[in-house]
Amino acid sequence: xxxxxxxxxxxxxASLIVVVGAIVAFGWLYSRARSFGGGNxxxxxxxxxxxxxxxxxLLLVEIAGQQLLVGMTxxxxxxxxxxxxxxxxxxxxxPGFASRLKxxxxxxxK
Length: 110
Hints:
By secondary structure, this protein is α+β, with helices and mostly antiparallel strands. The chain contains two helices and four strands; from the N terminus they run αββββα.
């Protein structure tokens, strides 16, 4: 009987590894699919975003080659500044599933 208990535990562990692997794989596929969907043919592009509060944020928006600084609240959107020349922004990819999982695991360890 001891052998059957160990094999059940091994089977459970293997199933758990398969499920976690499938979650990671689907998360990676989802993040890759988001980066390919639509391409770069959009008329309005959000270049950068900075949250200021729970429902307030600043957006750097590019429309027809011109950049605008826009303030956004829950009830209002207002243009704050129109830039004469484009603002240089470091290209960063949005955090994918893997980076979110790593940060969540780091938080759990604290």
